[in-house]
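>> received
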Amino acid sequence: MKIHIIGGPGSGKTYLAEKLSKELGIQHYDLDDIFWNNAESYGNKRDASERDELLADILKQEDWIIEGVYYDWCGKCFDDADKIYLLSVPRYKYRHRIIRRFIRRKLGLEQGKKETFKSLLQLLKWADKFEQKNLVEIRKILERYQQKVV
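>> returned
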């Protein structure tokens, strides 16, 4: 089974990927780990050819679950996926989840990339833009995969 989960920050991608991974016994991959060059923090993008090679290695596997916000360099993910989950939640919900995750990471209750208050504010702003602009583009792209979209 090949599953692609896409949605904005705080939409529940990682939660769904982890749940499906446990239920189905399939490895899941976060596209942030491929896109960013440093697993500890954001800001340093991986070279596109290296990123594409890492993604190609994942897509060669018999089963996978991929989750992330990315779509412009993930066409093969959509092509190869058996199921595509598009997640979208109300603004109050994704903002609450982003802030809660930030606090939990600061308190050491949750692991993740290092974030600052400034990066939190930037992420909240970017999440709003994603919902207003990127999600519209993603829905257009997914029209041709309608039979796969859950």
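>> The helical segments are 13-24, 31-35, 48-59, 75-80, 91-106, 117-142.
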